[in-house]
Amino acid sequence: MSKKISIKDIAKHAGVSAGTVDRVLHNRGNVSNSSKDAIESVLKKMNYKPNIHVSALTLKKRYNFVMAIPQYSKGQYWETFVKGVQKALDKYEGLKVSIQYCFYNQFDLFSCRKAFEEVINLDADAVIIGPTFRDETIYLANQLSDANIPYIFVDSMVEGTSPLAFFAANPHICGYLMCKLITSITSPDSGIALFQAVRVGDESANTTILRKAGFMSYYNEYELSNKLYRVPYSVVNIEQNDELIGDFFEKNPDVKGAVVLNSRGNIIADYFKKKNIKDIKFVCIDLTETNIKALKNGYIYFIMGQRPDQQGFMAIEAFFQYLIYGKKVKFENYMPIDIITKENVDLFTDFNPD
């Protein structure tokens, strides 16, 4: 039996009108017991599962969802997120939903401010926010709350706000696991380089702050002796890394491990390749195309996966449930954290919702 069963199909088999079926499906009453029994019998035989777009079509309301997320290139983290959003829209194709994107450069505080101001001026029914800078996110969240516009966070939660829900891999646990992994594959006397992206506005990303706290939590809990080095690098100006990183590894031969707490681990992997550095164990985050390539080529040892496509799908679905049916949405939604190596990376295919 096809999963897409219409109200008309049910009505035909039950010998009632489509309107009667709709009233039973949504508990609107005014249906005789005999008709209700007939409909429920058909639903059971057809293995019917409620389809959100059936009732949405009768509402004749168009919803405008706004996405305030970092800009991206092909194969990057946020492209995967948007693919998840599109899968949700395809699944619930009967809904009248338009999507407006307000992109910003996640390595530029002022770009973020400009995009968030744009969000405030849009006529949004709901907003999905991929937060990078904490204060700017709190400002936008407060503006949306004042306007009674529901919003959802993806990628991380920001304290001091009241979203409808958030969907993310727990950043503290992610950082904790990264420390556990890198120290399990390096000796206790090895130095570890913690690479941190330089951002215009000199403010760290919210996820980076939270992951770093998780990393240090493991480090302190197990009283590790590895010397930690904080090393800046540029995502925007790759050539600048020759100056920023310079002869760091030559001056610190004890460094045998490296960590990048955001999705741009490929930049450091490319630097390793360029400088012919082959003896550094490296852990980073996110299954981007470039990270996967570096993993397969041996420049990255572990990648932590956050399932951004599922985050996008579930965030859209949560808004459908909340706005159309008025259902309560689960507030805290943590994704599984995948630990990926070159041996198992090909098993992590695209997310395909039922």
Q: Which outline best applies? A: elongated
Domains, number:
3
Indicate the low-confidence ranges by residue numbers: none
Stated plainly, the CATH topology of the largest domain is called: Rossmann fold
The CATH homology group name of the largest domain: Response regulator
Strand content is 15-25%
Would you identify the CATH architecture of the largest domain? 3-Layer(aba) Sandwich
Helix content: 40-55%
Main sheet: strands, sense, barrel: 6 strands, parallel
Termini, distance in Å? Answer: 15 Å
Number of strands: 12
Global mean pLDDT: 91
Q: Which CATH class of the largest domain is shown?
A: Alpha Beta
Number of helices: 14
Q: Structural class, judged by helices and strands?
A: alpha/beta
- SSE ordering: HHHHEHEHEHEEHEHEHHEHEHEHEE
Biggest sheet: strands side by side, in what order?
A: 2-1-3-4-5-11
* Rg, alpha carbons: 24 Å
